[in-house]
Amino acid sequence: xxxxxxxxxxxxxxxxxxxxxxxxxxxxxxxxxxxxxxxxxxxxxxxxxxxxxxxxxxxxxxxxxxxxxxxxxxxxxxxxxxxxxxxxxxxxxxxxxxxxxxxxxxxxxxxxxxxxxxxxxxxxxxxxxxxxxxxxxxxxxxxxxxxxxxxxxxxxxxxxxxxxxxxxxxxxxxxxxxxxxxxxxxxxxxxxxxxxxxxxxxxxxxxxxxxxxxxxxxxxxxxxxxxxxxxxxxxxxxxxxxxxxxxxxxxxxxxxxxxxxxxxxxxxxxxxxxxxxxxxxxxxxxxxxxxxxxxxxxxxxxxxxxxxxxxxxxxxxxxxxxxxxxxxxxxxxxxxxxxxxxxxxxxxxxxxxxxxxxxxxxxxxxxxxxxxxxxxxxxxxxxx
Length: 384
What we know:
Elements lengths: L17 E7 L5 E7 L1 H20 L7 H25 L7 H29 L17 H16 L5 H12 L11 H6 L1 H9 L2 H7 L2 H21 L23 H22 L15 H17 L11 H18 L2 H11 L5 H4 L7 H10 L5
Antiparallel strand pairs: 1-2
Helix pairs in contact: 1-2, 1-11, 1-12, 2-7, 2-9, 2-10, 3-4, 3-11, 5-7, 5-10, 9-10, 11-12, 11-13
């Protein structure tokens, strides 16, 4: 089995940052088209590679302090990267009908489809044919779709809050001392990762420009090296489950007061590592930029490979746990994820990862011409 604690940010679930460029047209005016920001697509692709490698390393942790240290380092920031980018892409979400429509087709439908698919696959791989299908208890990778749906719907509320970050951190701290929250929609993770989403929601393009400065890039290198050293030191001394953000302090067998303290500590650590990661993301268009648009497809599909690898005994050979084998596993995981993010794979699986046909179930968004809309607003005034 494996544990998934990250997800890609895709156009199916986001309001991406774009630059508008005018293109000449035959008329007197110009037509504007939206151009994707290559830096953000690059960040999504590189982050989804960390998801794949993290899952590939999971069966190799036992008996290897080095692999466990790398695993801990990756889990300290790859999920916060996605949560922050998700919040950044949600800045334009104000719950308009077409946005709600897109939210349903881009998140709810894939959640239902893959929740059922993963349950059936788990029944086969775990020899548990009686495992029930529960849409309230997300299985494996699907938890983030539910989390992002909740976060996105609350985006307009966070823009009204005067101090959104302290409030979000407060909710996360309270969650760590509330084991009674339960497993419904994985609310423990939803609340504990919420500060990163709110952080992204509060960012502006100029803030991202700050981490791309030369000085920040140079400083990021020793910070990452030191973080890896600390992770290696902490392997026998710390429970890295704190970076999963899926359990309360009581469930991790520590005093309740440790929950709020670790919430602040892990948030600070992860925020610094997110900045270091973004500092080294290429800003120009690269060969893998186009793959950044397919991270949702790669994310949802690679779970079958990760779970099947253990079932089929791919980790049984002794050579796999040698340095050469660990490097081979890492390269294979990156290659598989790259292939699953390819445009051709996106087109094949689009009916389930971004089912436009589901719009037929929602009907059409009713639009009013300007004068009719003005009359409608006048008719609903309190003094009319």
